[in-house]
Amino acid sequence: MSVRVRYAPSPTGLQHIGGVRTALFNYFFARAMGGVFILRIEDTDQERYDPRALQDIYDTYDWLGISWDEGPRVGGPRGPYFQSQRTELYREYAQKLVDSGEGYHCFCTAERLESLRSGQEARGEGQGYDRLCRGIPPEEARARKAAGEKCVVRLKVPLEGSTSFHDRLIGDIERANRDINPDPVLLKSDGFPTYHLANVVDDHFMGITHILRAQEWIPSGPLHILLYRAFGWTPPEYCHLPMVMGEDGKKLSKRHGSTSLVEFRDQGYLPEAIINYVSLLGWSYDDTRQMFSRADLERLFSLDRLNKAAAVFDYKKLEWFNGVYIREKPDAALKDELLPFMRRAGLVEDPATPEQEAVLLAAAPLVRERLRFLGDAPELLRFLFRDPPPYSREELLPKKTEPEEILRYLGEIRSLMEGFFHRSDPENEEEFRLLAERLHTRLGSLLMPLRVAVTGSKVSPPLFESIRILGKEKTVARLVAAMEMLAARE
Ligand code: GLU
């Protein structure tokens, strides 16, 4: 049997870590098994539908480099892949359940259901439909419907016994039928299906063999099994994925930090880091290996190595992975990754000029080790594209030095700049050392004011390399500006 799996997001909000984990596991499972990965958009809830959420699904998986074999934009033999385009099918199958006696039409009004609910609440009883319409004879129901009375279709949940299913990870899950939602609505009065009906009908007609989804869907399991049975279909294999928690043991949410992919992306995480780390949320290859590329996971992923225990989302660990992948990037690739961040910070144009590209390429090796996120780059590299940010006079003065002294040093350094660009870095270091000797001062008392003058800050990427990228003209101009500042109050 060839594997067919699906990721079935509802386009109601942004893609978050949990959804991405589900999508990745389905995708990697399909790839590793030589199967098919399907994207299905569960957009039957018209009120909560948000077109930006659909765009976010495309953007997220395009960015991660995860593509689907069947689904929106690519089509496929079992489409359409938007549930909103399959409503005829759901209506037809809801009717089949009514015809076979597994379902029934319910004519209860919103008012009746509301008073039922408030009565149950007042009496402290469990909530749920009282199955009033389950007893209406089929002919009567048919006549009332034909006369135009508004109705929904409900499933007849057996009154006794229990329903069970096997979950590959968790084992057997059993539920007493009396504890299942009494006769859930399958088709609403506007002709749109509920999640349960659409989900089961689609999984069947799309030939889904395995359902890999979050554990929060376990409670729907028994109901879905009843639906498969009512239709006379064989259910797919279930595998509910371990929960993803924050460090406090509560379900991962905004309280813990960023959860939507777009936030991670904007902060400057690399897709490689996200894929690697998220794949380890509830899965392992062996007990030691940590580094996995997308291509590795496409070969190595297997359901046998899923963990039963909940996974804890560790932001620091993800940051660590990001650093590793940033450091692995060759200069040109790192430059390309940094460009959008530099553009967004207004430091390079869109598109970047050849000079800007060249500066960024030369600067990439200087910051590679220092970046936790790509988004750290604009601040570190700003001085290469703009005048340095304003600094105070004090910042130019190492401890226990006088302005005139530093003014003199900077004058000497300015002269050194004449030959600077013809010398190697070790040669320049030697020149500065000799200069410090001659001036009877420490090397630091030369380099610190120079660094502040050139970069506007006491911390910067390596100084000589930075100066080399900046060029003689700008370096000298900045030295002169610093000297003027020191001279001004003399
Ligand atoms: N549309 C559901 C969701 O948003 C799909 C759940 C399932 O995979 O069955 O997660």
In words, what does this structure look like?
The chain has 490 residues and is mainly alpha-helical. The chain has four domains: 1-71 and 242-328, HUPs (Rossmann fold, 3-Layer(aba) Sandwich); 86-241, Rossmann fold; 330-378, Glutamate-tRNA synthetase, class I, anticodon-binding domain 1 (Helicase, Ruva Protein, domain 3), CATH 1.10.8.70; 394-487, Arc Repressor Mutant, subunit A. 48% of the residues lie in helices and 9% in strands. The protein contains 19 helices and eleven strands. The chain has helices at 17-32, 51-64, 87-100, 110-122, 138-146, 195-205, 221-231, 261-267, 271-279, 294-300, 315-328, 331-344, 354-367, 377-385, 403-420, 425-439, 443-455, 463-470, 472-488; strands spanning 4-7, 36-39, 103-106, 152-155, 162-167, 171-176, 185-187, 210-214, 237-241, 244-245, 311-312. The strands form five sheets. It has a three-stranded antiparallel beta sheet. Strand 8 (210-214), helix 7 (221-231) and strand 9 form a beta-alpha-beta unit. The longest helix is centred in the C-terminal third of the chain and has 18 residues, at 403-420. The termini are far apart. The mean pLDDT is 96. The site of glutamic acid has 7 residues, from loops.
Topology overview:
Elements: E1 4-7, H1 17-32, E2 36-39, H2 51-64, H3 87-100, E3 103-106, H4 110-122, H5 138-146, E4 152-155, E5 162-167, E6 171-176, E7 185-187, H6 195-205, E8 210-214, H7 221-231, E9 237-241, E10 244-245, H8 261-267, H9 271-279, H10 294-300, E11 311-312, H11 315-328, H12 331-344, H13 354-367, H14 377-385, H15 403-420, H16 425-439, H17 443-455, H18 463-470, H19 472-488
Parallel strand pairs: 1-2, 8-9, 10-11
Antiparallel strand pairs: 3-4, 4-7, 5-6
Helix pairs in contact: 1-10, 9-11, 12-13, 13-14, 13-18, 15-16, 15-17, 15-19, 16-17
The structure holds glutamic acid (GLU).
